[in-house]
Structure to design on (297 residues):
């Protein structure tokens, strides 16, 4: 049995299942990637079920056990097309078969699950460790290319807002890595990259480490080449039903890092924010509604 046939069988037989097995079937149908990648015990914990319930579900549909069900999902995950073009073709095929609504629902379900994963204790510990290094650094050099650039830019923007030393090594005109000539042991290098990893980001990270800076990596796997170099790593998930990886969890992680970092900076950050707001007001940066005119008596 392959995954499409198993999915069809679970959907067709859903109403005839006992309540507990319905909950297990809903988990399998709603979290195919987790079924493939997580242990049975971890899945049972996340689904608020017992491992035995998951086993009974698999056996109900003619499988030897839940390990066989997981193997079916893992095989389907391995068979997904490689590269953007292949996955785009898959997306278009699915659009024709299932319609726009199914894709949209799956997209937002995947994003919700990725954001929920950021609340896991291990990820919380990663965020706290990274925030400490960022708060203690004299200057943070922010580096992210292609789809990773907005996340790096966001951290640089917020550090400037709170009066903390920051350099956005954005590569304009090919000079991005040149900024690292000034990096040293009192500084930190914040690097963002997800698969497929950009070579220049890895080269910049290696250079920053060679100069004694702390490396904070925001990436998508413990096997990422950035994670192998990092003093602190924050992992985010990027897979979606679309052909392109999502950066939404990376943006959320940066916003959390910024909040934790600002809290550690304390009064100095508050004073800098107040000065910044006053300057923005004085220069008319943002639209200010005109005061309402008083009516004549």
């Amino acid at each position: 049995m392959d995954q499409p046939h198993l999915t069809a069988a679970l959907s067709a037989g859903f109403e005839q299942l006992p309540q507990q097995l319905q909950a297990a079937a809903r988990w399998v149908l709603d979290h195919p990637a987790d079924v493939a990648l997580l242990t049975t015990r971890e899945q049972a914990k996340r689904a608020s079920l017992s491992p035995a319930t998951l086993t009974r579900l698999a056996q109900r549909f003619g499988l030897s056990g839940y390990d066989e069900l997981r193997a079916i999902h893992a095989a389907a995950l391995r068979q997904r097309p490689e590269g953007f073009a292949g996955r785009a073709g898959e997306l278009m095929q699915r659009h024709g078969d299932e319609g726009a609504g199914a894709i949209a629902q799956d997209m937002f379900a995947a994003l919700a699950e990725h954001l929920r994963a950021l609340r896991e204790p291990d990820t919380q510990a990663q965020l706290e460790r990274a925030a400490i290094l960022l708060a203690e650094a004299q200057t943070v050099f922010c580096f992210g290319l292609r789809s990773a650039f907005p996340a790096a830019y966001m951290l640089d923007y917020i550090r400037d807002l709170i009066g903390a030393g920051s350099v956005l090594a954005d590569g304009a005109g090919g000079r991005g890595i040149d900024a690292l000539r000034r990096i040293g042991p009192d500084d930190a290098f914040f690097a963002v990259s997800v698969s497929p990893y950009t070579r220049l980001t890895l080269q910049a990270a290696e250079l920053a480490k060679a100069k004694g800076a702390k490396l904070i990596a925001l990436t998508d796997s413990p096997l990422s080449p950035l994670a192998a170099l990092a003093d602190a790593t924050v992992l985010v998930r990027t897979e979606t039903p679309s052909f392109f990886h999502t950066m939404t969890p990376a943006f959320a992680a940066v916003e959390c890092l910024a909040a934790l970092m600002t809290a550690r900076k304390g009064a100095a950050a508050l004073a800098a924010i107040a000065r910044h707001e006053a300057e923005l007001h004085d220069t008319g940066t943002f639209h200010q509604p005109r005061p309402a005119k008083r009516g004549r008596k």
Observations:
- Residues 30 and 109 are 8 Å apart (CA to CA).
- The chain has 14 helices and five strands.
- Confidence is low (pLDDT under 50) at residues 81-92.
